[in-house]
Amino acid sequence: MYALLFLLFAGLVANIELETMQKFARFVVLLAVFFAAAVWARRRSAEFANSPGNRLQFEDLPPAEIFALDLRPDGEWSSDEAYVDAIDLNAGRSFAERLRPFGVALLIALIAGFVYERVGEWQDHRRYPRVGRPVNIGGRTLNIFCSGDGSPAVVFDSGGNQPGYTWTLVQPEVAKSTRACWYDRAGYGWSDPAPGPRTSADIADDLKKLLRAADVAPPYVLVGHSFGGFNVRVFAAQNRSEVAGMVLVDSADEFTYPGTMPDSLRAPGSYIPRSLWGVGTVVLDFLAQVGVGRLIDNGASSVEGRLSEHDAGLIHSLQIQAKAFDAQNKEGLDRDGQVAQVRAVHSLGNLPLVVLTAAGGIPRGDDEVSQAVAAFMHWRIYTTQARLAKLSTRGRQIVLEHSGHMIPFDAPEAVIDAVRSLLPDPVHMRAFSADSGAPAILSPVGFQPCSKGTTVSPVRCPASPPLFATP
User: Fold this and answer.
1) Do strands 133-136 and 141-147 pair parallel, antiparallel, or not at all (unpaired)?
2) Who has greater pLDDT, 113 or 430?
3) 24-33, 103-112, 407-416 — which one is most confidently predicted on average?
4) Virtual CA dihedral for 327, 331, 333, 339, nearest 10 degrees?
5) What span, in angstroms and rounded, lies between the C-alpha atoms of 22 and 396?
6) 212 within 8 A of 239, measured Cβ to Cβ
7) How far apart are CA 200 and CA 223, in angstroms?
């Protein structure tokens, strides 16, 4: 038993040492803890040694005055009750006095953590300068980056806890054909945070103000990845006359899985009662502000997809900002309201729509967990994502067999091709109608759709007649 406890303790110490050595700040924290413990022990030892009733200062007393305690079986002391009181470290101290050292230590730790977070963000900003420009939308600014010329303008919206820069492999290529813009939602990247919970309706309102203030004229082709798919759907419903097409990139959906959700796919917040989400958000935001998130972060562990090391580092530095943690929490607070807004968009009419679905990484094992995960992924790919394609009479789905959820990193060419398929053929281009306010339905180029139904392809399906012909 003792050997097992020793091995567990040794393993714990080894893990702490390993984690500490991975980051200098953790090493400093560990040293600070040891130093504080040493100071506390020294202080208590001094109090004990200087106590009037203490008779254990052997080095200061003659041998005749040194005596042994009479430890009788009944536990009573012979005559030295004052000595027994002296070894009670908290004798005569109030509860507030006992807590004072811990309060001082906590205050010092919080101040140090706040400074650590601010210095870390300052260093990241120096290492990775702003990409884009701030645009005032009324009391706060949002960051937007645009390049290229042409119409319709393509607007990219990222997934949860993803800055706009995640489109860095896609946007430059699209910009060769038309004007292409990505932006940072409130709290992400280089954008200012926004107060209160954030729903897709709030985000769509921000986006409309941003595009107006940044002089990005309609019509728009909207591209939404993951949670961004919710936002572009709500934007299209609110501004139908300004939207010429849409690409949903492994978009989130509003449908409820009929089976049991595998634990490995459940979000951490799903284990917390919804009544505690508000309190939990405040606590997590506070911890992020005092540098806890940055302290436990191990950096960009690996380069995802085709990202360069620089781009991966830049994106990671934006994701670990305290305001990014807060923004992500605010976007998830009103889950019911969020889903209700998206469900209200039950049809996109005849809007040209492409749904890209990730199908990589489906488990093929025979164990119960692998089968549960595979069942969920098949349901999502061939049921819910297919239903998204049916939101429009001109919708179609492309399943990417070799891509994970981060399609903008794993298969950027699939997004580029899908966007270009919705762009007009310059030969048949006609102007945006100022009288009706409706965007022209123009013939796309470079895209050949499959027959009806779901397409399973790494990039696109075989050639066939154009899907969106010029009327």
Assistant:
1) antiparallel
2) 113
3) 407-416
4) 180
5) 47
6) no
7) 14
Could you tell me the two tokens for 176?
Answer: 């060769």
Amino acid type, 409 = F
Radius of gyration of the chain (CA): 31
* Nearest-angstrom CA–CA distance, 324 and 310: 20
Closest CA to 156 of 182, 189, 188: 182
Q: Determine contact, residues 350/393, Cβ cutoff 8 Å.
A: yes
Q: What is the largest CA-CA distance in the chain?
A: 114
Question: Could you report the per-residue pLDDT of 328-384, keeping only the tens digit for each?
Answer: 888 877 778 888 898 998 899 999 999 999 998 888 888 888 888 888 889 999 999
Give the residues across from 141 on adjacent strands: 136
Q: What is the 3-state secondary structure (H, E, C) of 182-193?
A: EECCCCCCCCCC
Tokens of 60: 């200061």
Q: How far is CA 268 from CA 120, 329, 407, in A?
A: 26, 12, 23
Cα dihedral across residues 330, 333, 337, 341: positive or negative: positive
Q: How many CB atoms lie within 10 A of CB 196?
A: 9
Quote the CA–CA distance of 333 and 291 in Å, as a whole number. 22
Per-residue confidence at 459, pLDDT binned at 50, 70, 90? Answer: very low
Question: Residue 119 in contact with residue 153, Cβ under 8 Å?
Answer: no
Percentage helix, strand, coil, to 5, in the chain?
Answer: 50, 10, 40
* Per-residue confidence (pLDDT) for residue 22, from 0 to 100: 61
How confident is the model over 383-416, as pLDDT tens digits?
999 999 999 999 999 999 889 899 999 999 999 9
Neighbours of 218 (CB within 10 A): 19
- Is the four-CA dihedral 172, 173, 176, 180 of positive or negative sign? negative
Give the mean pLDDT of the chain. 78
Pairing of strands 133-136, 153-157: unpaired
Contacts (Cβ under 8 Å, ≥6 apart) of 10: none
CA torsion sign, 459 to 465 to 468 to 469? positive
Q: Answer whether 179's CB lies under 8 Å from 200's CB.
A: no
What tokens appear for 220 in the block? 């728009």
Look-up: residue for tokens 């413990």? 37
Q: Indicate the SS3 state at residue 108.
A: helix
What is the share, in percent, of the chain residues with pLDDT greater than 90? 36
Domains of the chain: 2-119 (no CATH), 133-456 (3.40.50.1820)
Q: Which two tokens stand for residue 186?
A: 């409130």
